[in-house]
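Project outcomes to date are best conveyed with an example. Our students and postdoctoral researchers have been running inverse folding experiments weekly, and each run begins with a structure described purely in tokens. The record below, which covers 523 residues, was selected by the lab manager from last quarter's runs and is presented without edits.
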């Protein structure tokens, strides 16, 4: 039986557990009409044109709309797109799904072949997860090497890296082409490593130009080195690459070795990883004659699995997508959804691609996401919607505030999925992208789990407010066509004012003051 390395599954504590889901909802003094009027007034005073703003608030238990403005107007969601992608993936793949990265050993007729099968896992060797996943890539390779040597394997004829679970269209056509070097635009592959970003550390030399160290230790060529080592000049070092290439150009000055590396996205992570793995095995005494990528004609990986399996729970992937708003994580989910739609076997965490397999891609991923949304909200909801990517980085996505509020309400009523789904959201005033917002809500008895969104001209916020007595209000606030600067700031202020008013709606009523007979007589 193979050893299985699973990343520690972290689901932040959530009050929305089964006992609370069964709580009897007690009538509250505030009326829905008051909330609607107050939110409309906040919108009016915001200085944002009415047609650029949509919002909706739903009473989850009562299954009714409490407030709405332009609720059915198609709007760009920015990263609020992630709440749809993560919810659909959780529903389709299941709460127990894991992204497994497996190494297979096949020995036949005196030859040995290794196949590393990627599952699209976005978390493999993610530097930000080292506190819960101590088995980084180097450690993983060391463990595999030890197991191979125990089996008497010190020479491998061929190493095949199989990333066919996803297609090779790694950069979405609607993403801003000029932003490809940035981590939030990292390419999406069937085998991802270190979030598909390389750390570049310049090392000054006593003479000549600085050299560079790469983390991970990818074999990346420096095409042009125009950097300098001037000890008397300030640090201005930078590195760049052309789109679709890894050849680097170094510029600026590196008078000292910096404390942290410069991050730059890489192209074709599977090819880089295959070469890296070949060198890493050689350094541990296992000679690999040839390394290559799997082709469309290659059969399914066979033989025995070399322990350990690297497993990332879907809960971790959801949390990174929603709390930390990591685009790569959401895109890996939508492509894995597409694979599961195309080939039912892809729902299995142990699935390995084979010849003729239909890879997960943005086309079948969009189809899978639309199917999941229709199953939850009904097909009529999708009228006017546009699903383009999984993270919301694309400007082409269109959803509605009412649809998002209903989506959250549906998951809040799902006893099985609600804890893991809303457990992946940031908590207002405490974690993730809203840790520095809503400071006054940090000690509130009402908890707000929400997802922010921002791209050029768009600012959004959607989520769920949870009262101590089990009352739940789902909400979505979408601002579009906003001018940079003041309008974005106004939209954020509006979101915060609306959330505070929603929290006020759920805040426990003050306990009635009891008056004893003696005090009453004095009155």
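After processing, the design step wrote out the following sequence:
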């Amino acid at each position: 039986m193979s050893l299985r390395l699973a990343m520690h599954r972290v689901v932040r504590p959530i009050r929305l557990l089964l006992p609370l889901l069964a709580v009897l909802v007690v009538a509250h003094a505030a009326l829905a009409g008051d909330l609607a009027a107050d939110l409309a007034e906040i919108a009016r005073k915001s200085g944002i044109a009415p047609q650029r703003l949509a919002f909706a608030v739903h009473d989850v238990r009562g299954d009714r709309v409490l407030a709405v403005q332009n609720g059915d107007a198609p709007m760009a969601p920015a990263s609020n797109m992630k709440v749809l992608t993560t919810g659909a993936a959780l529903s389709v793949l299941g709460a127990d799904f894991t992204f497994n990265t497996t190494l297979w050993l096949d020995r036949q007729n005196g030859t040995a072949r290794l196949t590393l099968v990627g599952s699209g896992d976005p978390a493999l060797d993610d530097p930000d997860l080292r506190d819960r996943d101590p088995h980084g890539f180097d450690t993983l390779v060391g463990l595999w090497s030890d197991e191979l040597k125990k089996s008497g394997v010190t020479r491998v004829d061929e190493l095949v890296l199989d990333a066919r679970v996803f297609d090779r269209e790694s950069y979405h056509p609607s993403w801003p082409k000029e932003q490809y070097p940035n981590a939030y635009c990292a390419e999406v592959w069937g085998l991802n490593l270190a979030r598909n970003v390389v750390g570049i550390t310049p090392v000054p030399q006593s003479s000549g130009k600085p050299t560079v160290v790469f983390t991970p230790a990818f074999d990346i060529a420096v095409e042009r080195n125009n950097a300098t080592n001037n000890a008397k000049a300030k640090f201005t070092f930078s590195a760049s690459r052309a789109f679709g290439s890894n050849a680097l150009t170094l510029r600026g000055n590196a008078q000292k070795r910096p404390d942290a590396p410069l991050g730059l996205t890489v192209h074709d992570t599977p090819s880089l990883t295959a070469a890296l793995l070949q060198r890493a095995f050689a350094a541990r005494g296992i000679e690999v004659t040839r390394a290559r990528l799997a082709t469309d004609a290659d059969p399914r990986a066979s033989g025995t699995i070399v322990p350990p399996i690297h497993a990332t729970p879907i809960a971790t992937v959801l949390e990174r997508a929603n709390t930390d708003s990591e685009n790569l994580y959401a895109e890996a989910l939508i492509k894995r959804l597409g694979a599961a739609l195309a080939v039912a076997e892809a729902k299995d965490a142990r699935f390995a691609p084979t010849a003729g397999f239909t890879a997960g891609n943005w086309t079948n991923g969009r189809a899978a996401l639309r199917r999941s949304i229709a199953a939850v909200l009904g097909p009529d909801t999708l009228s006017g919607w546009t699903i383009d990517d999984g993270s919301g980085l694309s400007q082409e996505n269109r959803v509605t505030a009412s649809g998002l509020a209903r989506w959250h309400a549906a998951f809040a009523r799902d006893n099985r999925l609600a804890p893991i789904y809303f457990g992946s959201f940031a908590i207002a005033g405490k974690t993730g992208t809203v840790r520095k917002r809503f400071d006054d809500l940090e000690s509130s008895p009402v908890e707000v789990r929400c997802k922010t969104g921002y791209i050029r001209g768009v600012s959004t916020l959607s989520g769920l407010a949870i009262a101590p007595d089990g009352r739940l209000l789902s909400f979505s606030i979408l601002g579009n066509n906003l001018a940079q600067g003041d309008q974005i700031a106004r939209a954020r202020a509006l979101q915060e004012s609306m959330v505070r008013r929603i929290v006020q709606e759920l805040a426990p009523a003050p306990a009635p003051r009891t008056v004893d007979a003696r005090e009453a007589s004095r009155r």
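The radius of gyration is 26 Å. DSSP finds twelve helices and 20 strands in the chain. The training component of this project remains on track.
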